[in-house]
Amino acid sequence: MEDYILVPAKSKFQVVRALEDRGFRFERFKKGAEAYVNLTAHHNRNKSSTSSLGVVFPSTPPPATVGELQARTFALLKRREIVPRVDANLRLLQCAGRRDSPISFSKDEMGLQLGLTRSLVYQPRFLSLTLTENDPASLLLEKGLVSNFDFENVLLGNREDFLVPIMLDLEPLPLEATGIVCGVADRLVGPIDSGDLTKAIEMSYLSTARTGTVIVEEKDLDYAMDALRIREDDYPEH
C-alpha cells in the first residue's frame, strides 16, 4: 500500500525538504521518475495526508505551529460558512483489483473494466479510481456497486469494514487558500508531536476540484463529525 501526496510543481522542493526535516528519507523510485519512496515509514501511521504546509495568504505569515494552522483553517471554514455534511445512506468499501499472475492479467483487467463500465452506467454517488504503473487498481466505491464486479471476482478487500465520506464544499474558498488538509487532520488525529494518540482515529482525505472529502471508518463517524464541528472558539483570522 502506498500513499500519494499531490503538490504544485513549484512547491516540490519545499515539501520534500519539510518532510526530510521531520525524519523522512527519500530516494528516486526509479531512474528518471519524479517520484520518491519513503524508506522509514511503517504503515502503522494514521492515514492522513497533507496537501501543503500552511494556510498562507499573500499578506499573512505562515503559522508557527500545527495548532495555529488548525485554528486558522477552522476560522476560515467558519467565515466562509463551510460545514461538514454526511449522506446517512452512503457507505464505502476500499478494494483493490486482482492481479494474481501474468496468466490471468488480461482476464482480470477485462473484468475490472467491465465492472467499472457497469458502475458508471448507474451514475454512482461515489466512485474513486486510482491507477499507477506498479500497483493494482485501487477503488473506493459505494457498497452497492461492488456486485458489478462479482461475476469475475476481480475485486479484493474486506467487505464488512465500511467507510463514510464527510464532505466539505470548498468552492467558496479563495484559490490561494492552502493547508486545509493539514488543519482538518490535526483536529481529527491530534498533534503527532504530542505523542498522545489515544483519541486519534484513522482517516484519509480525497481532494477534487471543488470538494474535500474526509474518509473515516463507520464506527468513528460520530466522533469525527463532532471534531469537525465549527466551535465557538474558532476565532477569526488575523
**Mean pLDDT rating:** 78
Radius of gyration over all CA atoms, rounded: 19 Å
**Order of SSEs, N→C?**
HEEHEHEEEEHEEH
Overall helicity = 10-25%
Q: Going across the major beta sheet, what is the strand order?
A: 4-5-3-6
Tally of contiguous helical segments: 5
Proportion in β-strands: 15-25%
**Poorly predicted ranges:** 40-58
- Main beta sheet: 4 strands, antiparallel
Q: How far apart, in Å, are the first and last alpha carbons?
A: 40 Å
By oligomeric state, this entry counts as single chain
Query: Which word captures the global form?
Result: globular
Q: Total number of β-strand segments?
A: 9
Structural class: alpha+beta
Structure write-up:
The protein has 238 residues and is of the alpha+beta class. It has five helices and nine strands; from the N terminus they run αββαβαββββαββα. It has helices at 12-21, 66-79, 105-121, 180-189, 221-228, and strands at 26-28, 36-38, 92-97, 127-130, 138-142, 155-156, 163-169, 203-207, 211-217. It has a four-stranded antiparallel sheet, with helices on one face. The longest helix has 17 residues, at 105-121. It is globular and about 55 Å long. The termini are far apart.
